[in-house]
Write a structure and sequence with these properties.
By secondary structure, the chain is an alpha/beta fold. The chain contains five helices and seven strands, in the order ββαββαβαβαβα. It starts with 6 loop residues before the first strand and ends with a helix.
């Protein structure tokens, strides 16, 4: 018999797209962010997590998301009386624009402003394709977030594409590249919803503390 999920998404809906503070949603809710390179599977993960088909548009064209997209999710947590709500925030993919190596800007000014000024940001899910070693832009983004005291959870996407042993090897490589031996990395498959309950548990624990 399948184990009952501790954290259940009860509803999910698109709320707003923004490129400046004035366009952020008025309702004050905790915010959990998804960020990653273009085509890493952010939209697929959002659709998998919410189980709302097509909530986030999946595109084969890199760099399609050009705005900060806010989705409001409702959550029921086992042994918690009141239901919780939060914003799942989808940021544009980084690392796609072809710019000079000397002064590569991997995210737009409005993304930097959001990440450094939002008072309700709880943590960032940094998505990285588990099949590949983290790229320079991945490492740069990770360090940028850590240096600013923004909590990061590395989510290794497309985990269904490789076997368990290969997953473990890739996670070891990621930890070595990031230079943190005990770095928490969560393998995720949007296709099979593997890792979904683990990510929901992290979200639930965060919301309980808000």
């Amino acid at each position: 018999m399948a184990e009952k999920e501790r954290v259940i998404i009860t509803q999910g809906q698109y709320i707003a797209s923004a490129v400046k503070k004035e366009q952020y949603p008025e309702k004050e809710l905790p915010e959990i962010v998804c960020i990653g390179r273009s085509n890493v599977g952010k939209s697929s993960l959002i659709n998998s997590l919410t189980r709302v088909k097509g909530l986030a548009r999946v595109s084969s064209q890199p760099g399609k998301t050009q705005t900060i997209n806010f989705y409001e999710l409702g959550v029921r947590i086992a042994d918690v009386k009141d239901r919780k709500s939060f914003y799942l925030v989808d940021l544009p993919g980084y690392g796609y624009a072809k710019t000079g190596k000397g002064n590569r800007k991997i995210w737009a000014k409005f993304i930097e402003e959001y990440l450094t000024t939002s008072p309700r940001l709880q943590f960032v899910c940094q998505l990285i394709d588990i099949r590949h070693e983290p790229m320079v832009s991945d490492v740069g983004m990770f360090r940028w977030l850590v240096e600013r005291g923004i909590p990061v959870l590395v989510v290794a996407t497309k985990a269904d594409k490789i076997g368990k042993n290969a997953q473990n090897r890739q996670i070891s490589i990621m930890r070595k590249v990031f230079g943190i031996a005990e770095l928490s990395i969560l393998p995720y498959s949007s296709l099979k919803n593997e890792g979904r309950s683990d990510l929901l548990d992290v979200i639930g624990d965060t919301l309980i503390q808000c």
